[in-house]
Each structure stands twice: as C-alpha cells, then as structure tokens.
C-alpha cells in the first residue's frame, strides 16, 4: 500500500520547466575590457604600427574593406606572398557570442589571449587558414583571419593558428583599457 501511495505521488509531480537558453551561447564574459572601437572605421591605421607588422613578416600596407554587416577589415600580405592576414574590427556587437553561437568551423577551441576570452577555429588540422575571435568588451571585439601558404617538409601548413594567435596577442597588447563610463 505504501508503495502505491509513493508511486502515485511521483506520478503527479510535474517536470521542472526547461532552463532558459543561454544568451551568450557559452561565450565567456570579459573581465578586463579593452577598447577596439577607435579602430573600427579603419583597422589599417591600427592598433598595430608598421614596425609591428614588419617584425611579423607582414606588409604594413593594408587594404581596407567593408563587410555587409558594416564591420571593417584590413587585409595585409606577407612580404613574399606566402601568407595573408586580415584584422576585422567589430565595434558594435559581441562578436565572441556570435562565434560561439555559429561555430562556423568543425575545429573550435576556447583560448585566452592577453587575458581576454577568445576562440580559435579551423576547418581541418591541415587547413592553410585559421580564424581567431577575441572579445575585447561587451559588444566589441576583433577577428584575425590568417592564411599560411608556406609548408613544412611534411607538406602541412606552417602553423596558421599559432601565427594567428600571435597576431591577436599583439593586437590585444596594443589596445587601451575601456574607459570608465
């Protein structure tokens, strides 16, 4: 009899309501925000200087373009044409949340770059290209897309993700702190 009452009590309990969806899609928040907005109109003018680009073997002369979203990017080439890098400044939305929501590429890794949350994406381990998205503050960030056309003796690309992360680290180091409101 006691078992019947217990079973009846369990049968009348309702399941808890589902948890609300995560508005950040798992993307971490930025603890020490940096300000990338001043470079949003022309990412070819900064935050890195001509000597910064030169030391990475990338031309300091870039070509600015505008995405359909209105975000601006700057494309630069390696001195011998063996690599290219683009820096996209996203000054009016949380590009890290967008990256976590879409997860455009099958290889996705969470990383920290210069103390800021970031994601590294690549289509395959042998891809010549890699994308690094960095959240710099609420509703702003940047993306480094790096393509490496130089190959190691084993025929694989020479670490485009490592190189993209090094570019992103230099960008973060050059960004000023977000001004207090």
From TrEMBL:
A Pfam short name: DUF3558
- Superkingdom: Bacteria
Q: Which InterPro entries match?
A: DUF3558
What protein name applies here? DUF3558 domain-containing protein
Source taxonomy? Bacteria, Bacillati, Actinomycetota, Actinomycetes, Pseudonocardiales
């Amino acid at each position: 009899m006691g078992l019947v009452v217990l079973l009846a009590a369990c049968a009348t309990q309702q399941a808890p309501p589902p948890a609300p969806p995560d508005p950040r899609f798992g993307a971490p928040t930025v603890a020490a925000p940096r300000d990338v907005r001043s470079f949003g109109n022309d990412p070819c003018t900064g935050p890195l200087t001509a000597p910064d680009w030169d030391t990475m073997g990338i031309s300091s002369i870039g070509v600015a373009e505008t995405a359909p979203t209105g975000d601006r990017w700057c494309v630069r080439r390696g001195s011998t044409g063996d690599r290219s890098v683009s820096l996209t400044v996203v000054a009016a939305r949380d590009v890290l949340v967008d990256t976590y929501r879409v997860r455009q590429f099958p290889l996705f890794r969470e990383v920290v770059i210069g103390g800021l949350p970031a994601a590294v994406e690549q289509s395959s381990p042998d891809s010549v290209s890699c994308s690094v998205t960095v959240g710099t503050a609420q509703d702003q960030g940047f993306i480094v897309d790096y393509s490496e056309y130089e190959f190691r003796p084993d025929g694989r690309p020479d670490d485009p993700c490592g190189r993209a992360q090094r570019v992103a680290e230099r960008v973060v180091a050059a960004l000023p702190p977000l001004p207090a409101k």
